[in-house]
Specification:
alpha/beta, Glutaredoxin, seven-stranded mixed β-sheet, 7 strands, 33% helix
Length: 172
């Protein structure tokens, strides 16, 4: 009987409550669609602060990625090529490095520079708590009014004709 009580007490103290599990649910991020994108201020690779709300009036593609994820690295290359297109110059692309190490992206960027803002989220507060991003890569389209309109799970082929058409519609 004492063993059972000890096990129950251990379960209560060592396992997180159900509310914490709900926060990391893959369904939590879906609640963002149709709502104002949570604002944040993070540092870019040069140490400058970047605040999402400063891009109100512009369409934004917010991409959560990690330098240890091969799919993320492939997608970063695609996003660089996307930004080079004349018809996508108005699209603001922001990458958030979903890694606890503030310098995690530096090695990658020394080999492969990017043409958009890459921000660090060393505490993963924005990644996990504000956006409930549970995987990388993961991308959100945010309209000119700051509303999340679409969420893309996993690596995307941003240069495919169908995807480009969706992005052009987003720019309107």
């Amino acid at each position: 009987m004492r063993i059972i009580i000890a096990l129950l007490l251990a379960a209560v103290f060592f396992f997180p409550p159900a509310a914490s599990a709900e926060q990391l649910s893959p369904f939590a991020i879906d609640q963002l669609i149709g709502k104002k994108a949570p604002d944040f201020t993070l540092s870019d690779q040069s140490g400058a602060s970047v605040t999402l709300s400063t891009f109100l009036g512009k369409p934004v593609l917010l991409n959560f990625w990690a330098p240890w994820s091969p799919n993320s690295l492939d997608e970063v290359s695609t996003l660089v090529r996307l930004r080079e297109r004349a018809d996508m110059k108005e699209l603001v692309v922001i990458g958030i490095t979903a890694d606890k190490k503030a310098d995690a992206a530096q090695v990658f960027l020394q080999r492969k520079p990017v043409n958009y803002s890459l921000l660090t989220d060393p505490g993963l507060i924005v990644t996990t708590r504000r956006y409930a991003a549970f995987m990388v890569p993961l991308s959100l389209l945010i309209d000119r009014n700051g509303i999340v309109t679409k969420i893309y799970f996993g690596q995307q082929e941003w240069l495919r004709p169908k995807m480009l058409q969706a992005l052009v519609e987003h720019l309107k």
